[in-house]
Design brief:
The structure is a homodimer.
Chain A lengths: L9 H8 L3 H9 L7 H10 L6 H13 L3 E6 L7 E6 L1 H32 L2
Antiparallel strand pairs in A: 1-2
Chain A binds a DNA duplex (30 and 30 nucleotides) through helix 1 and helix 4.
DNA sequence: CATTCTACCTTGTTTCGCCAGATACTTTTT
DNA sequence: AAAAAGTATCTGGCGAAACAAGGTAGAATG
């Protein structure tokens, strides 16, 4: 007898909006550098895009299994060794496609949103 | 014994990217007009944002149950009656929040993407 | 040696978009 | 009038992603 409906709040929508976008962001971050998980979280956070570990680790593994990324271990001077990820050739190709996909999507959204203002001026 | 991994293709990513964004688009379309399902699909399609009925109807119902939309039946001169949706007061408030959310998200993605170019120039 | 910190990983839940149907009513055709 | 086609609505099941809330293992610190 739980309230199954009305599950539309802003926080949830924010989480939904980033689905599939994180993948694009991570490939972008790794485009010409290598980084490990905490690096990536830090960089995303500095762009106001908060991500938690439980999200990032499965995503990195997924991208690695898909052949987009590969990693190598690197010793740290202050702690356990780290998995540093870089793009594969396939990863670079996918990044190009995702850039087009994101461009088309954001253009579509902006077109729909701006239609409101146009209608206001009629 | 199926290949459970490597399930990262562009088509799937496109579907993921639009999660939560469709909600924003539909509220935007209804900001100052009323429309029924086929209207909405048509307008989204003209912005290159293809949506199928199986996606839209549950979404409209969800938004209605959340108090964002309400509808009224209207007779059609050529076919069955139609459910015309409009924004409620809560829907208008949510639209404002989603506009900020979308703005922040797209700005974050652009910042991350453009960081690549900046690093190239260092 | 015990504690804290760092870095990695996993399980279960929720939500969404999509596919593939079904239902119901209206209009048109035969 | 009966059958066919068209319009508009809705539903069940599936796959994928983000998150919460854990856990493991080793290094640094006291």
């Amino acid at each position: 007898m739980k309230p199954k409906s009305a599950r539309v709040n802003i926080e949830n929508t924010k989480a939904q909006m980033r689905k599939g976008i994180l993948e694009f962001c991570i490939l972008s971050l790794l485009a010409d550098t290598h980084a490990y998980a905490s690096d990536i979280i830090e960089q995303l956070k500095s762009a106001e895009l908060i991500v938690v570990e439980g999200t990032l680790y499965p995503l990195l593994t997924r991208l690695k299994n898909a052949g987009m990324l590969h990693y190598h271990w690197e010793e740290s001077s202050s702690g356990p060794p780290r998995k540093y990820y870089t793009l594969t050739q396939m990863g670079k190709a996918s990044l190009l496609e995702l850039q087009e996909t994101w461009g088309a999507l954001s253009q579509a959204v902006n077109q729909i949103t701006q239609r409101i203002k146009n209608q206001h001026n009629e």
